[in-house]
Amino acid sequence: MGAGAVAAAGGARAADTPAPTPRPKAPKTPFSTTEAYDAAKVPAYKGQHKDVYAYIDAHQAEHLENLRRWVRQRSISAQNDGVQEMARLVEADLKALGFQETAIVPSSGHPGVWGYLDQKAKKTLVVYMMYDVQPIEPTGWSVDAFAGELVDDPKLGQVLMARGATNQKGPERAFLNAVASILAVKKKLPVNLMILAEGEEELGSPHYPELIAKYESRLKTADGVFFPMNSQTPAGQVTMPMGVKGIWYIELETRGGPQGGPKEAEVHGSHKSILDSPVWRLAHALASLTTPDGNTCLVPGFYDPIRPPNLEEQRLANGVLPQWLADEAARKDALKVDRWMGGMTAEETLYENLFNPSFNIDGLASGYTGVGAKTILPHKAVAKVDVRMVPNQTPAQLMKQFRSYLDAQGFADVKITQLSGYPAAQTTVEAPLVKAAIGTFNKYGVTPTVLPRLAGSAPYYVFTDTLKLPLVTAGLGHGSRQHAPDEYMVIRPKPGSKVAGLAEAEKFYVDLLYALAEA
Amino acid sequence: MGAGAVAAAGGARAADTPAPTPRPKAPKTPFSTTEAYDAAKVPAYKGQHKDVYAYIDAHQAEHLENLRRWVRQRSISAQNDGVQEMARLVEADLKALGFQETAIVPSSGHPGVWGYLDQKAKKTLVVYMMYDVQPIEPTGWSVDAFAGELVDDPKLGQVLMARGATNQKGPERAFLNAVASILAVKKKLPVNLMILAEGEEELGSPHYPELIAKYESRLKTADGVFFPMNSQTPAGQVTMPMGVKGIWYIELETRGGPQGGPKEAEVHGSHKSILDSPVWRLAHALASLTTPDGNTCLVPGFYDPIRPPNLEEQRLANGVLPQWLADEAARKDALKVDRWMGGMTAEETLYENLFNPSFNIDGLASGYTGVGAKTILPHKAVAKVDVRMVPNQTPAQLMKQFRSYLDAQGFADVKITQLSGYPAAQTTVEAPLVKAAIGTFNKYGVTPTVLPRLAGSAPYYVFTDTLKLPLVTAGLGHGSRQHAPDEYMVIRPKPGSKVAGLAEAEKFYVDLLYALAEA
Which domains does chain B have, with CATH numbers? Predict the structure, then answer.
């Protein structure tokens, strides 16, 4: 209370606070090599499949409609909106393509979709798909997010503007268009396909491991895992990430209880003069977790697991730096920011992105948030928080660290609920599937800059760790504004654009399948 | 950034933080008198108006319908929902009662309603009314908040359960029922009435001073101001507050800008690794404002204006302490709390309530607050905050103190927007109107405990300071859950209840008017 608290207070943190752990400069140690990986040295794929390309060109209208069908089907996993219908739509499309096996796969959450296309080929490719999408933002959309609208963008050309257009329905259905074209012309794919789609990627894929477990023995026999993706920037450049960060997504909640505050419902705001407030507690608990700029986590041990970049990561980082620096202005414009975190240089942000975890507040909610002034003392407050984990960090470890830190800070009354959590994933650039993808990019004159990893997350650990398979997420084409209003994918680029349209994206997928078969 | 911030950080507050001001023990200085004010010593009002009482009893059904008409008319000022219609309804009722003057009074906000009933009487009473109500809570209502439902409460008897039932439409319309009854039987009131109703009380009465200004010269000629109120607790006890605290209601907002963070829209959460976050900034700004328990404001000078309780306030406080202590269990049960703020004793909370300001967070909003996990980095965050001010604190003073403190703490990027603000108000217990009210309570055997002031707020300064008139808020009857789900007013109390029903509440108002005329 008053006196006690004041005595304890250096302000918002308790007296027994350990000295904060400064965020380690990323990379943790100086690089031991200045060598830069160069994807241009990978031989370009030489195969030509003109009859298939011609088929693709002749069927563009139909192929575009396939994408529009997919984005028009709502599938918001967080709100269980259209999920079942989308799963059935995906299965129906696999059946129509001639997959010998298809199945809606039950899980403890939203169902998965399995498909197997046996072509008696030597090699087998696993295709990862997600069929769910993010919720819709209440404002900011200039079209109906589920209408499958075609919009003429003055800079980009004709785009498909819809939730899921680029994350991830667009490229996924474009890949299936490519498969359909090969089958129509050649009657046979050069590789066998296993598809295992999930409907909970945007929830952090809590049950994808269950789906994997059901097919683990068969999936392990494959040669690699592929995730179709619009990899091109507006300038046509491509980055290929060799890994992803993990994610730990939690809710921090405070409520009235034995430590004070109303337990069952909000009360009149004037009662604050004699009551404790769970909302103030949440504000202090959050503030105790980072430095005042919100950019360094103060939880002891948070940064300890970070290992120095290995040789391959160093070579890849050296390789992407020039491109990263060249793109700085475009990146600032895309994110609408005046500066980088804490005034960092562009080079520093590359290393932060690759080698350090991020710590973010996704949402805050308590009490009255409507128009005007309503005077209440809320009985609870919630913060949604996520950590993007680098290799060696685990959800279990973070839960332990955060719980004991909050307890030590006097925030035992703050409840931690994990909504999702999985570790990072990594693939070596020397894997045949990776070389096939890079070779195919080189054929199209779009030599990729190969990233050690993405700052974003995906449940790829199930492939790289559980199945021990290399994973490639790649493709020609461009889209953006995923998780934001007016998400889009380019369909017919403006003349002179360096971005591939839908047809060329499909041809890339065709060549990739052959390149893998021949690798 | 990183290093800098860490160096500066004792954690969540900047290095140049002044030592926190401990909340002064309330009262600031020891009382100089142990004398206790005793309302029982005020002579009970002796008048009898049996014909009027009989009329009231005979017209209960009709009178109840008047209350239901009022609560059925939505009038949510914060959402401009039904406000105009309610203003017209109030004016129409005054016309119907025979007020010679009635008017809808335009203001810069919602309109006021004026009415003057000239009875050629010596004394004139100003009746303050509010015709607006709070927004509806999304959950927790067991009836339609605007249906005017009559509910049988096992403890209380028949209650009117609706938004506005007790705050404030119920008692206001009950008062008008009393006026109608006198006019019907006696053809004449013992006093002249001036009514000036507002539709923005729940917004902090931003424009009531405009309304007052329009009638100031006439209002100043009155003998006092009366606000009808259900003053009884479930046990039948009455407290009469001689004043109210002021209120300063603000929004604290952080957005992306030159100091970093996305400026125009939310971005993907993974970008936190290279971007600043306005949400973390708000958490730290809030935490910098209080001790970790959220119970002591750290803004320098915040508590300085508090003056020691004067002799009258001391006598009143001494008078109410026994009742306050006796009610502790009931109060805890009503608020659903396990303890008082910071573990205070019941006696300490009385003094906190009376003599210290409160500092409350009414709401928090940022980013994604729906079901499940959505990973975004929001471009803005908002906190709704209110201070309940004691005498000598002013909104202008608080704005200056908070702005310079936040600037000194390194939070110049935190925007402060005042939604409402007005000072405290005080009336002396020696005023004739006050004595008339207490005398009337004594007639009904319900001797009030007279509070120095309420912890809540109302714009009474316009009466006590601008018009220099004594103000009384009083009445028999009971209601509760204002600003919360299932708000109610008792209509027909259970047999044996100590609570007055609607009929007795109306008789009290009748006697009060005569008592004032004879005072």
Answer: 40-242+427-518 (3.40.630.10), 245-306+356-422 (3.30.70.360)
